């Protein structure tokens, strides 16, 4: 192999590694990996219908929170 082939392969691999690093850091900054409740939901709810009911309850709570509802 010639030196220019090795240099080209090294340059391409460094470029692709830098692109992957930038994409990873972008994902971290934008919260792409923030799924704190995923494991807890898997433990708490055995069935898909239970998970859907919990999601609906969360949606209702959020709607009430947006309306500034306070229970008496």
Written description of the protein model:
The protein is mostly helical. It folds into two domains: 1-34; 35-72. The chain is built from three helices and no strands. The model has no long low-confidence stretch (mean pLDDT 84).
Question: Quick recap of the structure?
Answer:
The protein is mainly α. It contains three helices and no strands.
Uncertain regions spanning at least 5 consecutive residues:
none
Number of strands: 0
Q: Level of helix content? A: over 70%
Distance between the termini: 80 Å
Strand content: under 5%
Task: Provide the structure class.
Answer: mainly alpha
Calculate the mean pLDDT score and round it.
84
Summarize the SSE layout with pairings.
Blueprint: H1 3-29, H2 38-44, H3 48-66
Key words describing this protein structure:
2 domains; elongated; 74% helix; mainly alpha; 72 residues
């Amino acid at each position: 192999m010639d030196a220019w082939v090795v240099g080209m392969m090294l340059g391409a691999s460094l470029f692709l590694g830098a692109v992957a690093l930038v994409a990873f850091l972008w994902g971290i900054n934008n919260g792409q990996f923030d799924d704190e409740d995923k494991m807890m939901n898997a433990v708490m709810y055995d069935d898909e219908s239970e998970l859907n009911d919990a999601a609906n309850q969360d949606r209702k709570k959020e709607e009430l929170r947006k309306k500034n509802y306070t229970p008496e």
